[in-house]
UniProtKB/TrEMBL annotation:
CDD domains: LysM. InterPro entries: LysM, LysM_dom_sf. It comes from Chryseobacterium phosphatilyticum. Residues 7-30 form the LysM domain. This is LysM peptidoglycan-binding domain-containing protein. Coiled coil: none annotated.
C-alpha cells in the first residue's frame, strides 16, 4: 500500500504554503520529504527548484477523502440497521482436487448489547457446486438438511469478530418441518441413514457449534478488522483460520494495513498479509494433534509453511464490508488452500 502522495510544485509554492494546504507542520513536511527523496532534492530551509514534494499519505487538501477514525486511528464498528445481500464464492483446493461453491446470503443486524452485536444470516439462493446446481443425491440431501440452520443468529465482538452461534436450540425445533420436506422429495435407505445422522448431530450441540464455527462465509465477513491501526496505519496480530479439520485452528502471523484515504469509489481499503505461525509440524496437523508433539520451551521450531492474505473494501457511510477476499493456505501432505470472495449484491 502506498505510504505517500506527491505534490507537484507550482509557481509561487513555498514549503509553508504546501504544508498549510495539506494541514501539516512545515518542519514535519520537510522531514518526511527528505526521508524519501534523493539527496539533490532534499529541502534544507526553503524550496530550491524541487519539482515534487513527498506528502504523508494521510495529508490531503480535501478532508472528505480521509477515513473517519477514532483514537489511536481506530476503525469503529457500528453496524446498527445494517442489512446486506452478498454473493459468496468459496474455492477449496487440496493438491489436484478443486471444488467451487457459490451461493447468496443476507446479513441483518438485530441488536447490540453488552459489548456484542447480533446478526441474522440467511441463505437466499440455491447452492451451486462447480458452476452446477447441486443434483447428486448426497449433495441435495446436504443442501436440504442445511435449511435447519437458517436463519442463523450469531454474535460478534466490538472488533467485528465472530464469537458464537446464538440459536443452537432452535435447530431441533425446525428439524421436523425440514425432515417432512425431505421425505416429500426423496425416499430410501440412503435418505433414512442421512436423516439419522442429522438427528445425531442435533443431539450434540458442541459438534454442531464446531461445524458452524468453521463456516467460511461467516469467518471472512466477521474476521475482526475493526482494530487500532496506530500512527502508521498498521497493526500485527496472531489470528487463526479454519483451513484444517483440526478443532484447534492453525494460527497465522498477520500484518493489517489501513489506507487512511478513501479510494476513487469512496471505499475504505484494508489489506492483510501473513504466514503460518505454528509450533505444530506438518505431521502434527495431518494426525490431528492439538499441539506440537515436540516439547521445546527454550527454542521451539516455528512452522511457516502456509500463507495468508486478504483485502477488504468498506462502504464509506456504514463502514461495513462492501466486498472482500481472503485466502489461506497450509502445507499438509499436499498444499491445501481456501479462498473466499464475497461481494454485495445490488438491489
Amino acid at each position: 500500500m502506498q505510504k505517500f502522495n506527491i505534490h507537484t510544485v507550482k509557481k509561487n509554492d513555498t514549503l509553508k504554503s504546501i504544508a498549510t494546504l495539506y494541514g501539516i507542520d512545515k518542519d514535519a513536511l520537510k522531514l518526511f520529504h527528505n526521508n524519501l527523496c534523493s539527496v539533490r532534492d532534499m529541502v534544507l530551509i526553503e524550496l530550491t527548484g524541487q519539482k515534487e514534494i513527498f506528502i504523508p499519505r494521510a495529508a490531503v487538501a480535501d478532508q472528505n477523502k480521509k477515513v473517519p477514525l477514532g483514537r489511536t486511528n481506530s476503525l469503529i464498528f457500528n453496524p446498527a440497521k445494517i442489512y446486506r445481500k452478498y454473493g459468496a464464492v468459496i474455492n477449496i483446493e487440496n493438491g489436484d482436487h478443486h471444488n467451487e461453491l457459490k451461493y447468496e446470503a443476507s446479513v441483518r443486524w438485530i441488536r447490540s448489547e453488552n459489548g456484542l452485536h447480533y446478526f441474522e444470516i440467511d441463505r437466499i439462493s440455491k447452492l451451486y457446486l462447480n458452476e452446477e446446481e447441486v443434483n447428486e443425491i448426497a449433495d441435495m440431501l446436504a443442501y436440504q438438511t442445511s435449511k435447519v440452520l437458517y436463519p442463523l443468529l450469531i454474535s460478534t465482538d466490538e472488533q467485528g469478530k465472530f464469537k458464537t452461534v446464538e440459536n443452537l436450540s432452535v435447530f431441533k425445533e425446525r428439524w421436523p418441518g425440514v425432515k417432512e420436506e425431505i421425505y416429500k422429495e426423496f425416499e430410501g435407505e440412503t435418505v433414512d441413514r442421512y436423516c439419522r445422522q442429522i438427528e445425531k448431530v442435533l443431539e450434540a450441540p458442541e459438534t454442531l457449534n464446531l461445524y458452524l464455527k468453521n463456516d467460511y462465509f461467516i469467518r471472512t465477513l466477521f474476521y475482526g478488522i475493526y482494530q487500532k491501526f496506530g500512527e502508521n496505519f498498521n497493526t500485527e496480530e496472531i489470528e487463526s483460520f479454519p483451513i484444517t479439520d483440526n478443532p484447534i485452528e492453525p494460527k497465522y502471523k498477520i500484518k493489517l494495513e489501513l489506507d487512511p484515504l478513501k479510494d476513487d469509489h469512496d471505499l475504505i481499503r484494508i489489506d492483510g498479509t501473513g504466514k503460518l505461525h505454528e509450533e505444530r509440524s506438518v505431521s502434527d496437523f495431518m494426525n490431528g494433534a492439538p499441539f506440537s508433539m515436540i516439547i521445546d520451551d527454550d527454542d521451539p521450531v516455528i512452522n511457516h509453511d502456509g500463507e495468508f492474505r486478504m483485502r477488504y473494501y468498506l462502504d464509506e457511510k456504514t463502514i461495513f464490508p462492501a466486498s472482500m477476499y481472503l485466502e489461506s493456505s497450509i502445507r499438509l501432505r499436499e498444499e491445501k488452500k481456501i479462498s473466499v470472495s464475497i461481494a454485495t449484491i445490488s438491489e
